Amino acid sequence: MSDRVRKIFSEILKVSVDQLDDESSPENTPQWDSYAAMDLTLALEDEFGIRLTTKDIVSMRSIAIVKNVLRKAGVTDV
Q1: Residues spanned by the domain of 55
Q2: Helix 4-13 vs helix 34-48: crossing angle, to nearest 10
Q3: What's the CATH code of the domain at 51?
């Protein structure tokens, strides 16, 4: 599976890709605050050419969940 999502998170959060995994979340990644969450949402929408619903955005509490949300939106290469 591609690391596109982790690369986006790395760029927005300004941390190494190696510091991120599917369990990364706002609870264990201090850089993932509310402002970063907005930037992440915009970056994900731009990268994958989708629009996320408010419900999807609120549910995205880990990288694993983000990948699942993207798959539900029809993205196959996350």
Answers
A1: 4-72
A2: 140
A3: 1.10.1200.10
The verdict on pTM exceeding 0.90 is: yes
Q: Identify whether 78 is part of a domain.
A: no
| Structural domains of the chain, count | 1
CB count within 10 Å of CB 37 equals 16
Q: Where are the strands (E) in the chain, listed by range?
A: none
Identify the pLDDT of residue 64: 97
Other CB atoms within 10 Å distance of the CB of residue 20: 20
The stretch 30-48 carries a mean pLDDT of: 98
Answer whether residue 2 shows pLDDT above 80.
Answer: no
Average pLDDT, the chain: 96
DSSP string, 10-44: HHHHT--GGG--TT--TTT-TT--HHHHHHHHHHH
Q: Is residue 30 part of a domain?
A: yes
